[in-house]
Every structure is written in structure tokens, then in C-alpha cells.
Amino acid sequence: MAQTKHRIFNDYRDLFWSLIPLVLAAVVLAGVASQCTVATNGPTQGQIPFFDADAALTSDAKTLSFPIRKPALPQGWVSNSGSRDTIAAAGGGAVSTVGYITPQGTYMRYSQTDATEEALSRQELGSRYPNGTREVAGQTWVVYSEPTEETGWIADLGGVRILITGAGNEAAFTTLATAITAAAPLSR
Description:
Elements: H1 12-32, H2 53-63, E1 78-86, E2 94-101, E3 107-113, H3 117-125, E4 129-136, E5 139-145, E6 151-156, E7 161-166, H4 170-182
Antiparallel strand pairs: 1-2, 2-3, 3-7, 4-5, 5-6, 6-7
């Protein structure tokens, strides 16, 4: 008759040796079912969602009471999102926003509104305060920044305030600001 150890004499080595066959069986089954892969080149960018910025901005130009601009951006800027919102606070108004993925893969967006700069900055930028200006294509942009937050640039283009935010570098902000400043308002 085979002798078995009493439970009191079992230790962690026994547990370890009894789990090895179970782990090996799980790995083999997962491999056979193609549920395990080994990535050697890191994460890859997925497909950028399509957003028809032309149609959205044309619609906004016809329905909103302030001038709407559609910037002519360089090749590689892809519109991927958009929205329409309202700032309900004092000095607020309607907001039209379009987002882009830059050729470097960063996200940038710009919002157009008839709200005051103060109402726009409080709604969209929270606790960030102006701490400088940038002169781009003859237009002064007020820069709102904070070390741990995205930077925001706001300009008053006569009847409309423009806000640019995003994860892009200074060149991306300058490219978008230049294109917006050069764009004529769309026809109503």
C-alpha cells in the first residue's frame, strides 16, 4: 500500500510542482486557440475615424449667428471629430468644435464661439490663466497654460473667439493658428 503524506506535511514546494502541469496546459491551449501573441514592435496606430468637417462647418455657418471659418490645413491633417455645444455661463454662447490628427499623430482641435474670452476660457480651460501671447500671421493669440495641462490659445477675430487646444507642439499650434487666421468666414 502506497504511503501518502498527511496534509500537515505538505508545503509550498508541493503546491508549486502540482501547478506547473496546469500552467503548461493553459499556455498550450491558449496558443492553439490563437489567443496569445508576442508583439515585438510595440503598439501600432489604429484607423483614424472619419469626420466630415466640411459638412459640419457648412451646417454651422448656416445655423449659428457668428462667422464660421474652415481652415485650409496642410496635407496630412485629418479631421476626426467634431461637436456643437453651448456655454451657459454669463457671456456664453454657441460653440462649434472640430478636431484633427496631425501628421505627427497628435490631436489638435479648435473651437469657434460668440462667447466672451473669459466665458470660453473658464468653460474649456478651467483653472488655466493667460500667461503670454503669440503673434501668428498678424493675429495676437493669448496663451493659457499650466505645467500639467494642455495649452490653449485664444484669439478674437471680430465677432468670434477661436480657441486652439491639443497635444501638439508649438509648430502644430502655429500651423492651425495661421490657417484659421487666413480662412475667410464661410457663406451663410
